[in-house]
Design goal:
The chain is an alpha+beta fold. It has eight helices and six strands, in the order αααβααββαβαβαβ.
């Protein structure tokens, strides 16, 4: 993910006569989507560049992404996971839930038992990360499993009463190539 940030910095240096501020969201996929959507909402409300820039660190710190990978072979092929970890996970019938850490690197946030009914398992995991007293923006991503994405949206809506917005989208190719088909991502952004 740091490569994307560095590419943005390099590209911004090629643009003359325009002020470009590159912001590291320390996130990926649906996590970055939530950050951008919140900044766009503030702009639509009439907030200016300086006002939005001032609250971006808080928006970033309250946005989290969780990824459940159904088939670990894609993560191994992409060089993001050693092959022995896949073998152990397959033997134990577990799947890691990955997240971005404070420095933007990926790490484990937990595990799910098995790969069947991944939408239900991921909803239980995500709802466990949500505080009943807070309002959330939620962004769900799926990798070639729209029916699981729809199910995950419904389960999260039913499981939490304070959701300001919830959207479903396809996981992009950059994350999708490593996550592989069947993967699900949940982005959570606490509002209050």
């Amino acid at each position: 993910m740091s490569g994307t940030y560095q590419s943005a910095i390099n590209a911004s240096k090629r643009i003359d006569k325009t002020k470009i501020n590159i912001v590291d969201g320390f996130s990926a996929s649906v996590g970055l989507g939530l950050i951008v959507m919140e900044a766009a909402r503030l702009a639509k409300e009439g907030k200016n560049y300086e006002e939005i820039s001032a609250v971006l660190p808080e928006i970033i710190s309250t946005s989290n992404v969780y990824l459940a990978v159904k088939d670990l072979s894609y993560v191994v092929k992409g060089g993001r996971l050693p092959g022995w970890v896949k073998k152990v996970a397959d033997i134990l019938h577990i799947r890691p839930v990955l997240t971005t850490k404070e420095n933007g690197s990926m790490g484990a946030a937990g595990v799910l038992k098995g790969t069947h009914n991944l939408a239900k398992k991921m909803s239980t995991f995500a709802l466990g990360k949500m505080d009943d007293d807070k309002i959330y923006n939620v962004l769900i991503g799926h990798s070639n499993v729209p029916e699981d994405g729809i199910k995950l949206v419904k389960l999260i809506q039913e499981g939490h009463n304070n959701i300001r917005s919830i959207h479903l989208l396809d996981i992009g190719c950059a994350l999708g190539v490593h996550a592989g088909p069947g993967s699900l991502a949940v982005g959570l952004q606490s509002i209050s």
